[in-house]
Amino acid sequence: MHLTQELELFPEHRVTLLLFKEVKNAAELRKSAMEGKINGALINPTMLVDPFQVLVAANKAVHLQKIEKMKTRNLYSEIIFNLSPTNNISEAFKRFGISDGDDSVMVVVVHNKDESQLLTDIVAKVDGQQVSVEDISSMSDSAKIKKLYKVTPQEEKCGTLLDAVVCRMATKDVL
Amino acid sequence: MAQEKGTAVPVLLSKAELLKQGAEARVYRAEFLGKPAIVKERFPKRYRHPVLDEKLTHRRTVQEVRSILRCRKAGISAPVVYFVDYTSHCIFLEEIVGSSTVRDHIASTQQSCKDQELERLAQQMGQILARMHDEDVIHGDLTTSNMLLRRGTEDEESDLVLIDFGLSYISALPEDKGVDLYVLEKAFLSTHPNTEALFQKLLKSYTASSKKSSAVIKKLDEVRLRGRKRSMVG
Ligand SMILES: Nc1ncnc2c1ncn2[C@@H]1O[C@H](COP(=O)(O)OP(=O)(O)OP(=O)(O)O)[C@@H](O)[C@H]1O
Ligand SMILES: [Mg+2]
């Protein structure tokens, strides 16, 4: 169901993605996250094309944490910020964070090899149905994504929407 | 999570496969989040002043990723940028798997005398460079090693991929575009013997594809003349 990826650059770290639909306690989850009671980033899946997009954001966040150059308060807010095509922090939270009325959520956890308890804790907190992370494509809104990332039809000729999105995320610091 | 501060990229590269050691950069093959990737590392040049060197290296890294994005936005193929580390000056790029450089491709095709195939390739090169220049991207280091040929795709134009944008910049001046083509011509003719006619095909296709080609070709002629005069004197 979930997807766990090792970060080649940080071999002691894993990133795990969990996806939920029919979520009934988004407001409560958001509040817990703000209070630091959830060890993960809560993301609105509509703006996600593919799990790889989230992994790219997580890798960059861990890197910036290590070199002490994060733009936001903590690793999880940094992951949300990294997903955004712009350098505006509040805009990033509005687009990629969850809102109280949301009924689906992607949770991103950065952990050690042997921290499976973290995942169990997350699943217990979400009042919703866990689905396979691969289902993300059925939840995403590609029209909205193209608009936010300003993806042109010509760009899609030389690559996928995921390519376009990842390229912008990776280069936004120097645009 | 015991790891020292600072970038983790050098440790990864110490175990990665080195593909090419250049004068300015090392190119590695590595995995990035499970995908095949190419890492381009620009290392310090000892003979340069450290502060100046850092600035120049940073600028090249920035130029490279900016021009890649600009090209891709215009539908011109260049590798996807996955991740950039500005502290170790490393760019993680999509690996164009199974590709060969245009240089290698021309060399092997010349051997087997497939003239038609070479002409088609020259035509595609002319087209992609015309589109790049119409976007005001000046590559700065056009050679047949800095173009890759994607294998397997039958789709005409999209199988050429431009790489190595470290010396690129944005300019609308026909002179800059003319010099860009001149650099390619020099490299092309010296790398691939007896290709004058082939290169003419490339220029013809460039002329037909670019909206602003006449001013560029005029400048190319001027630059050629200047180059010849210079070599006569020097
Ligand atoms: N994205 C890629 N996919 C596959 N192969 C690549 C890719 N990028 C580079 N290569 C291979 O590595 C070689 C060198 O890459 P590149 O031209 O970017 O570096 P370089 O010539 O050393 O750089 P510089 O000219 O700045 O010193 C290319 O000729 C090509 O064979
Ligand atoms: Mg090169």
Automatic annotation (TrEMBL), chain A:
Keyword Zinc-finger (UniProt): no
Keyword ATP-binding assigned: no
Domain of life: Eukaryota
Single GO biological process annotation from the record: tRNA threonylcarbamoyladenosine modification
Family matches, as Gene3D superfamilies: CGI121/TPRKB
Compartments, record wording: Cytoplasm, Cytosol; Nucleus
Main location: cytoplasm
N-terminal signal peptide: none
Keyword list, A-Z: Cytoplasm, Nucleus, tRNA processing
InterPro entries per record: CGI121/TPRKB, CGI121/TPRKB_sf
Chain coiled-coil ranges: none
Gene Ontology CC annotations of this record: cytosol; EKC/KEOPS complex; nucleus
NCBIfam families for the chain: PRK14886.1-1 (NF011465)
Protein family membership: Belongs to the CGI121/TPRKB family.
Protein name: EKC/KEOPS complex subunit TPRKB
Source species: Lates calcarifer
Lineage per the UniProt record: Eukaryota, Metazoa, Chordata, Craniata, Vertebrata
UniProtKB/TrEMBL annotation, chain B:
GO biological process, one term: tRNA threonylcarbamoyladenosine metabolic process
PROSITE patterns with a match to the protein in the record: PROTEIN_KINASE_DOM (PS50011), PROTEIN_KINASE_TYR (PS00109)
Protein's UniProt keywords contain Transferase: yes
Keywords: ATP-binding, Hydrolase, Kinase, Nucleotide-binding, Nucleus, Phosphoprotein, Serine/threonine-protein kinase, Transferase, tRNA processing
Broad class of the protein's primary localization: nucleus
Superkingdom assignment: Eukaryota
Functional description taken from the UniProt entry: Component of the EKC/KEOPS complex that is required for the formation of a threonylcarbamoyl group on adenosine at position 37 (t(6)A37) in tRNAs that read codons beginning with adenine. The complex is probably involved in the transfer of the threonylcarbamoyl moiety of threonylcarbamoyl-AMP (TC-AMP) to the N6 group of A37. TP53RK has ATPase activity in the context of the EKC/KEOPS complex and likely plays a supporting role to the catalytic subunit OSGEP. Atypical protein kinase that phosphorylates 'Ser-15' of p53/TP53 protein and may therefore participate in its activation.
Protein family: Belongs to the protein kinase superfamily. BUD32 family.
NCBIfam families cross-referenced by the UniProt entry: arch_bud32 (TIGR03724)
Name by which UniProt lists this protein: non-specific serine/threonine protein kinase
Source species of the chain: Lates calcarifer
Lineage: Eukaryota, Metazoa, Chordata, Craniata, Vertebrata
